[in-house]
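Aggregate trends can hide what the representation actually does to any particular protein. This step matters because it turns folding into a mapping between discrete strings. For completeness, the protein is quoted in full, as a sequence line and a line of structure tokens:
=====
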Amino acid sequence: MAMIDVINQNGQVVSSIELNDAVFGIEPNQQSLYDALKMQMAGRRQGTSATKGRSEVSGGGRKPYRQKGTGRARQGSIRATQFRGGGTVFGATQRDYSYKINKKVRRLALKSALSEKVAETSLSVLDQFEIAQPKTKSFVSILSAIKAPKKTLFVLGENEDSTNVILSGRNIPGVGFATSKSINVYDLVNANQIVMTVAAVKEVEEALA
């Protein structure tokens, strides 16, 4: 079990907590990280690009000219792919790029991402995160006190009252929020610093250990 300091919103060390090595201390599995990231990025693709084939473009219902006697190649429709205004050959069609990977691979990827952050000393633990009133100024002062860099992801417990916290920090560039149940590999890897509350740490350990 690795020990890590627990700080308050003023950046002061108030206690320490043991991190479960089964979640925060494994050897990162790069293949599972790659598979999870690839799946997430594929799921974010819109897949809305589309072209029309010869059966979808308008017009071309009548044969353009008679079959024989013109000296030209026979044609059945002016909407064939070789004509201007005709259909597109093998064009893009709307599709869903999302797919799923095994649950064990997803869990391993999450544990690998968390373990990498611990190894890089890019994970901090807050005793609690509370703001009395939604004020961006209050949130900025907390960021300064805990020395949070740009692109910081705050992970809060499911049962913690985080409404004022999210309202105060949602318009700050680079700041992201997640709960212990909604964390994902992309957000963990993309963040320069992960700040978790004690409650979130315990919930993550219960879910992944």
In short: The mean pLDDT is 92. Residues 2-46+100-208 form a domain with the Ribosomal Protein L4; Chain: A; fold (CATH 3.40.1370.10).
